[in-house]
Write a structure and sequence with these properties.
- With about 240 residues, the protein is of the alpha/beta class.
- The chain has helices at about 15-25, 45-60, 85-95, 105-110, 120-130, 175-190, 195-215, 225-230; strands at about 35-40, 65-70, 75, 80, 100, 135-140, 150-155, 160-165, 240.
- The strands form 2 sheets. It has a 7-stranded mixed beta sheet with strand order 1-2-5-6-7-8-9, sandwiched between helices. A two-stranded antiparallel ribbon has the order 3-4.
- Strand 6 (about 135-140) and strand 7 form a beta hairpin.
- Helix 1 packs parallel to helix 2 (about 45-60).
- About 35% of the residues are buried.
Length: about 240
Amino acid sequence: PISYPSKKGPLLRPEDVRDVVDGIDDLGVLPRVDAVLTGYQGAPAMGAEILTVVDLVKQRNPNAIYCCDPVMGDVGRGMYVLPGIPEFIRDNVVRTADLVTPNHYELNFLTGRETTTLDEVVDASHALREQGPDVVLVTSVVTEGADPGSVTMVAVNGEGAWAVTTPLLDAAFTGSGDLTASMFLAAWLETGSPEASVSRTADVVYSVLERTTALRQRELALVAAQDDLIAPRFRFEARRVR
């Protein structure tokens, strides 16, 4: 994992977020909002405010969807958020979300399971769907017997389950989960297809990470790789696994 020598700048307070959203609402813009996407939540109070914002957006546009990237932890690192956040996400946020994008570690926590095979990951994803979300994207899936030089994403909804496997790049990245969640949400809004969405997400994310690796950057090379967001250089096919 990448570490930084220092951290500076203010932390946004829940009331700051609400003030910004209220200002947007005053402009009459919220009915045009198609989706809300959230990632890292600094405290349970921020999570509670986010749920209030999601409710407001859905009041203004009943067709809007909420995509939650439940940022909590990862294999080898464990939980890296403040105490109380994982439980709040599990017990409150997930039930409100339409799409969730946990990594393999977070899927296990949210479902109380230990998954080591692709079938178990799909079963756990359906268990998570039973809590509220219609669509689950599981990232950084590593299963027994899998090629150690590869990594898999799995998209699951009521129609089935699809997986995409890409080479594992020998580098650590900051923001790859944020990019993955945003690309999957964008693809879902465009296609409504888990198969097309997970394939498109793999194409874009791998292309951006490959460019970042080539430039030896620690931060995602989003400017240098901006064309990959539209026309990714690498293509991967999703395979149906259930």
